[in-house]
Each structure stands twice: as C-alpha cells, then as structure tokens.
Design brief:
The chain is mostly helical and 407 residues long. It folds into 3 domains: 3-47; 65-158, Receptor-associated Protein (Up-down Bundle), CATH 1.20.81.30; 168-407, Type II secretion system (T2SS), domain F (Receptor-associated Protein). It is built from 16 helices and 3 strands. It has helices at 25-34, 51-58, 66-81, 86-94, 100-114, 119-124, 132-144, 147-204, 210-244, 247-257, 263-284, 289-299, 303-317, 322-329, 334-346, 349-406, and strands at residues 3-9, 15-21, 38-44. A 3-stranded antiparallel beta sheet has the order 2-1-3, covered by helices on one side. The radius of gyration is 31 Å and the shape is flat. The model has no long low-confidence stretch (mean pLDDT 82).
C-alpha cells in the first residue's frame, strides 16, 4: 500500500503532520479521524523508482540468506514463548527486516493469517523462503500445540547447517584463491610475456627445445583465438547452468559432487548429517516415518541423495524395516548401519538418529580441518610444474644465447 503525507489538527487544536500507510486517501482520512485527528491535507508520497530494484524484482533475483532465516526463526520462537500472538510477532519482526523477499513473504503471511488460514499453509505459499521441512515442522507444532518448540528445533537445525556450510567454504577459500591466481598468471604469461620472448628467439634463429615450442604454440593459440576462447568459455558456463537446471542434469551434477575426489566425501557426509538431523527432528515431533521421508527427500538439497531417501520411503511403504531399506541404498557406513539397527530395535530412533547426525558432523568438521592439508600438495605440484616448464622453455634458450655471446 502507498504512503501518504498528512497535516491535521488534534482535538485540542494542535497541528500534527506525518506519514501513514493506506489503501487510498479516503481510507487514510478515516484512520486519522479514528485517532482523533482532523485531516487538513492528505498527499500521496511519491516513491522514487530504483531501476536496479525493479530488475531484481522482475527477475526474482532476491534470495534469503541462511542467517536471515535463522534470525527470523529464533525471533519467532522467542516471541511465541513470550505469549505474543503470531500476527503481532510477525508485524514486530517486519520492522527490522530489510530483505525485500522476506518482507513481501511475511506481509502475505500476515494477510493470510488474518483471513483465517493457519501458519503452515501461509508459509507454504513461499517455497523460496520456507522449505518443505520447515513447513512440515510448523504444521506439527500447530497440530500438537507446541509451535514454539517447532521453531526452536528448526533454529537449531538451520544453525547446524549454517556452521557446516561455512566450515566447508572456509576450507575451500584458500585453494580456490590459489587456483584463480594460477589461471590469471597463465593468461598474462601467454598473452603478454611469452610473445616478447618469441620475437627474441626468432631474431636469434635458435634451435628451440620442445618445452619452448610448447610454450610458443600455446601462446600463439591464446593470442590468435582469445576471443573465441572467451566466447567458448561463456557458452560452456551458460550451457552448464542450463543443463544442471534440468531434472536429469541436476541429478547427474549432484551425483558427481558427492563422488568427486577430496571434496565429495565431505559433501556426502554433510548431506548424511542433514538427513539424520532432519529425520530425528521430524520423528521426535511426531511426524510419521513415511511422511518424514517424503518431506526430507524434498528438502535435503541434493537430488542424488533425495532419490535414495525416496527409495527408503518406498521400501517402508512396502512393509520393509528401516534398517533394511537403509542398507540397500549403500549410503551409510557399517557403523552407522549398526546404529540404525539398535535404534529400530530399542524403539529410540530419534535419539539414535541424533547420535548419527552428531557422528557425521564430527567427521565433517575433522575432514574440513584437514582438507587444506590434502589439497596443498596438489597445488604445490601444479605450481612447481608450471614454473618448471616456464624455466626450461624460456631460460634454457636464453642460456644458449648467453653461451654463444661469450665465445
């Protein structure tokens, strides 16, 4: 709704001015009269249009960060625990929210609540903000009357995922920076440095070794076809993005990243930790196993893992034991499978799944801490190889020239 600037007089004749939100000027006049203010002028406030904001809005470029979602979830848990009605809680949170996507979503949720819909249905209208698991946990909280507990559980779950994600990003930051620096250095060497030496070698009519010929031919290729190389790289990037946005492409990409050397094992364990934590949270909240599996498969964040979770759900629907269906996926280690069996036999699956999640998270933390140690030797080998080729290709011919000049 638009904002209006108004001037008016209070009941005691005092001059009052300010801004107020309303559907139209008549609605604003009614609101002012209800507050004991006699309106004199009501002018709609002109809003300056931000072209960049409009483009982002049209292209759906706004995203909600995990930190923003965590903050909202913790605030809701605290406000509901304090006994504040949900609509008032959301209205209070809106005053401190800056993300346009979250603001738009919370305003719509409040409108839906005021029209009689429940919170889970209102949140389900905004899948870009609230995942299937999030909505299901809210629904369980509404059904059991423990909405505050549902928000608290989701806050802990989001916080754990946030820490795992940040640890992985931190571990990859150094090798990623080094690789980018190597690529930039290679581009500069091929486009600017080697061509200078090529003219020098040509002027002295030297017999060049294979290392030098390799460097010169590579440099000539980059210099002659740099535009086509750039276009090809851009085409490859856009083609790759288009491919992974298709169901089959996304499945194959998700399968690749959990099987990739070094980082794949860490990602696989982090997804397993997310699965176990989600299962424990949903099961302890009273969500039936089949329904919990369906919700988790849609919110786990990896189509390859989701396919295995769906396989487990289908096995349970056929009457098979959870441990048997989990073993058929071959996603879990023998130690974890023993935990599955113990939890199913003892009837404390939620506790055992929480233990499994802790187990995987500890392994992920350890792997992340040692990831740099595993990658650094590979980086050193790559840099050393590049330096060796440059040294042999450039300095050996120059050494020959120096020897000829000394005779």
């Amino acid at each position: 709704m638009p904002f209006y600037e108004f001037k008016g007089r209070s009941d005691n004749g005092q001059m009052i001015d300010g801004e107020i939100e309303g559907a139209n000027s008549n609605a604003v006049a009614g609101l002012l009269m209800d507050r004991g203010v006699t309106p004199i002028t009501i002018i709609e406030k002109k809003v300056q249009i931000d072209v960049l904001e409009v483009v982002k809005e049209r292209l759906n470029l706004y995203k909600i960060s995990i930190e923003e979602l965590l903050m909202f979830t913790r605030q809701m848990a605290a406000l509901i625990k304090a006994g504040i009605p949900i609509t008032r809680a959301i209205s209070g949170i809106l005053d401190s929210v800056e993300n346009p996507l979250l603001v738009r979503s919370l305003r719509d949720i409040n409108e839906q609540l005021e029209s009689g819909r429940n919170l889970s249905v209102s949140c389900a209208r905004h899948p870009r903000v609230f995942s299937n698991l999030y909505v299901s946990m809210i629904q369980v909280g509404e059904d059991t009357g423990r909405l505050e507990e549902s928000f608290s559980l989701m806050a802990d779950y989001i916080d754990r995922n946030r820490r795992i994600t940040q640890n992985i990003k931190t571990a990859l930051r150094y090798p990623t920076t080094v690789i980018i620096a190597i690529v930039i250095a290679m581009a500069i060497v091929n486009l600017a440095v080697i061509p200078k030496f090529a003219s020098f070698f040509e002027a002295n009519k030297l017999e060049l070794p294979w290392q030098t010929l390799l460097l010169l031919n590579t440099s000539n290729f980059f210099v002659d076809y740099w535009m086509f190389i750039g276009i090809a790289l851009l085409g490859a990037v856009f083609g790759f993005k288009h491919y992974i946005n298709t169901p089959d492409g996304r499945y194959q990409w998700h399968k690749f990243i959990v099987r990739a050397p070094l980082i794949g094992e860490i990602l696989h364990r982090s997804f397993m930790a997310r699965f176990a934590r989600s299962f424990a949270m949903a099961y302890s909240a009273g969500v039936p196993i089949v329904q919990a599996m369906g919700v988790i498969s849609r919110s786990i964040g990896n189509d390859y893992i989701s396919g295995h979770v769906n396989g487990m759900r289908e096995g349970i629907e056929r009457g098979e034991a959870l441990t048997r269906t989990a073993g058929q996926t071959r996603m879990f280690t023998p130690v974890v499978m023993q935990m599955f069996a113990v939890g199913e036999e003892a009837g404390n699956l939620d506790e055992m799944m929480s233990f499994i999640a802790d187990f995987y998270e500890e392994e992920v933390d350890y792997d992340v801490k040692t990831l740099s140690d595993k990658i650094e030797p590979l980086i050193y080998v790559a840099v050393g190889g590049m330096v060796l080729v440059l040294a042999l290709g450039i300095f050996v011919p120059m050494w020959d020239v120096a020897q000829l000049a000394g005779r």
